[in-house]
């Protein structure tokens, strides 16, 4: 019988089964909470019932609180009240888990007396990814089951654990047979009845906490070990403080302490930013103007041309997803070097315990090498990752045109160049698309999907689906120089290079960006990537500081230096050599040297990036402001807790952004002339979120 629109109640023998069904992920919305509470009430009032099963239909057990309800007035019953009802039930409650029991979903399961899960299920408390902490007792209950050390790791990483691991740590009591959860859970429930098992409350468990009482350094050591990873984020420290509270406070006081810190985080800008990115990544996968039922083409075999750093990383991305891939390079030496690097990467991963040693051969087994493009004639997708020069790319595509099968997708990994011009080298421009991977391609999540003016809709839809298959975040962008990410990087580059000519040092510019939350500064990033990327030795004419450094053999970290000097362990120090090049070049340009403060550095760089983002939106190269945020958070290290350049600008207030740009334009250069889009939005009282 129906409890409400999303919950049903039925009795099987002596077991009440309360089933929730609220697509897409059974998030704990008001209706779901009412359904659980209503079902439990019915079970408690039904004398024939001696135990209750809480189970979900659809893809998963509760995947967490309903994030879309955040910021709205709470609707009864709130999650904690539902949990208290479950925890204080006078009849055993068994949570039956499949899919992903995450956040509030796992916290609900922790207030049941027992938990059973199918082997494919995962359990986790990922709130930290949203700038939050588990706000329904997770920081107080999990440590009581798995111990302090595991709880610290699980909750601050947000990573889920498999049902098997959960069973091992006592988080789950029983494993069901895959695909047989309901029946096995009923059997388990009847066993609980027949054996008259106690009403176990996690809150009453103290054994795991006593283990930690003798180790006061556990928290200090954990903070120290993770300082770099948590730098700038508020949620991890709040989580650690809540877990510390399990040793210092009685359960209910710990719960109250957790609630206080949760509310602080939820009200803060960091969580707003991280929730924005969560939804923005999912929004980016929805392509306006392309019907959701557009056919997805099969990608059974992939070819990658170019066995260099990018080609090798791209090939690994496919091998990691279990898709057979052939890596082609015209030079046998380059090919074998590329394959050796790939194997070396896998062996290093295996040494770190992040993959089994025996999987290295399996992974390499679906990754073959060849010196002939003819071997790609049966590939569904071929990705070119050769030197970033238009004529070379057009040559490759012209050749590919004669080799690839008619329905193959022809993709270029170019990071700046014109997709349409590359496609014009073929007889099938509609089959050409840009798949811009970011280095290292097998690790970086961002995939810029660049549509040419002729690119077919099904190829665009297939590429977007492919991003998800590869575990990446796909963002569809328009075909303009540098697309979205590198176009904004170019704006940052222009200001950074101008600032060092006017008197800021590379390390001063880098410190501002590092303090803002980037993993590294601009010049440190340039040295890491290599100053000679895209540098043409023959045509180099000392026309920029970067060219001069390259001409001196200073190509960055891989050589003695670039903007910085490096020791044999690649530790960087400010470079007097580079500084002299900068000052001599500035003098030749007649640029006066002056003291430049951190505020000016920060304003000029960040507002130049925001302005470029507005231009991309206005030109239609970016479809949404949130797409730009996804690109810069996932591809360039914009700190997630600042939400991306456009979210950050909205947080400053667009009127203030416009004023700032105008004053920067007056004071420094027309490069800051505000994008007309910003002026329009401000005149309409809107923000980028409304663009
Ligand atoms: N609330 C609302 N909607 C959600 C949601 C949630 N928690 N999780 C996913 N969705 C939507 C998502 O926006 C998308 O919508 C659709 O579901 C499919 O998601 C008190 C406070 C569960 C692993 O952080 O990790 O509990 O775009 O594309 O790749 O302590 O979604 O289709 O309209 O991601 O198969 C904690 C977040 C919340 C889990 C499925 N929970 N979700 O991945 O599908 S805070 C989480 C995920 C909390 C408590 C605290 C993933 C997934 P649309 P999807 P997927």
UniProtKB/TrEMBL annotation:
Transmembrane segments: none annotated. GO terms for biological process: fatty acid beta-oxidation. One of its GO terms (molecular function) is (3S)-3-hydroxyacyl-CoA dehydrogenase (NAD+) activity. It is found in: Peroxisome. It catalyses: a (3S)-3-hydroxyacyl-CoA + NAD(+) = a 3-oxoacyl-CoA + NADH + H(+). Pfam families: 3HCDH, 3HCDH_N, ECH_1. InterPro entries: 3-OHacyl-CoA_DH_NAD-bd (IPR006176), 3HC_DH_C (IPR006108), 6-PGluconate_DH-like_C_sf (IPR008927), ClpP/crotonase-like_dom_sf (IPR029045), Enoyl-CoA_hyd/isom_CS (IPR018376), Enoyl-CoA_hydra/iso (IPR001753), NAD(P)-bd_dom_sf (IPR036291). The keyword NAD applies. Pathway: Lipid metabolism; fatty acid beta-oxidation. PROSITE patterns: ENOYL_COA_HYDRATASE. It comes from the Bacteria. The keyword Cytoplasm does not apply. Residues 482-566, 603-686 form the 3-hydroxyacyl-CoA dehydrogenase C-terminal domain. Keywords: Fatty acid metabolism, Isomerase, Lipid degradation, Lipid metabolism, Lyase, Multifunctional enzyme, NAD, Oxidoreductase, Peroxisome. Residues 301-478 form the 3-hydroxyacyl-CoA dehydrogenase NAD binding domain. Monomer. Belongs to the enoyl-CoA hydratase/isomerase family. This is Enoyl-CoA hydratase/isomerase family protein. It comes from Sphingobium cloacae.
